[in-house]
Amino acid sequence: MALLLITTYAFSTDLVLGVVPQQSPLKLSKKWLIVTNYLKEQTGINVVFKTERSIPNFEKELYNGKYDIAYMNPYHFVVANKEASFTAFIRAQKNIQGIVLSKEKKVDFSKENLKGKVFLFPAPNAFAATLLPKYEFKNKFDFDIDKEAKVLYVNSHDSVYKGISRDIGYIGGGINRTYNNFKNNTDKNKLNIVYKTAKYPSHPIAYHPRVKKEDIQKLQNVFLNMPKEIKSILSIKEFIKTNTSEYDVIRNLNVKK
Hints:
The protein is 42% helix and 21% strand. It is an alpha/beta fold. The strands form two sheets. A six-stranded mixed β-sheet has the order 2-1-3-10-4-11, with helices on both faces. The longest helix has 19 residues. The protein is globular, with a radius of gyration of 18 Å. It comes from Poseidonibacter ostreae.
């Protein structure tokens, strides 16, 4: 059943919504299928949920323009805008912030302590969970995680949290929303947030140029007026309008240098 949800194919009149797999495809499908059903009820547009088994696979599909609309991290959007002319139109009002977790209650961020330690991240281009911690550790603590530590990419935020709890890694990156949604208390009770990054515009939902502007206007209005009980499924309190220029701050940050 899960496989069918992951690989749903669309008819020519459908709009395929790609969702970055911060959690397992099964967990995402349970949430986003409720959202896409609501979008269809309100607009008459058949929005079809699709995700991938890993964030790198999602990136490949996204940058090749395989989705009509997509929910992605801010760095993904900068690349998708350049590679496939995606345009941002809606996002969560709350800005995104990366968190760094450890089993220790307080971590010494000196080179002496961090050198050679194992860092867990969901994927190389996860913006707040990977790129921001790497960027800020380099600039604030003069510690280059990629060169001076051992990095393991474990496919999802939940896998980071489990891995730190189970001593697979010393430090891991995530975001508040997925951490708050992490329900495994046996693992969660062992974790501590030891660092928070700066805040930036949150994950946008963006559309490919082939999508009709009138369809995007309909979808934008529905997101803006979405009932609280639907938004709460995504752990989002409020949606707001956005545009491509709002993400210039991400482009100028140059987190990949």
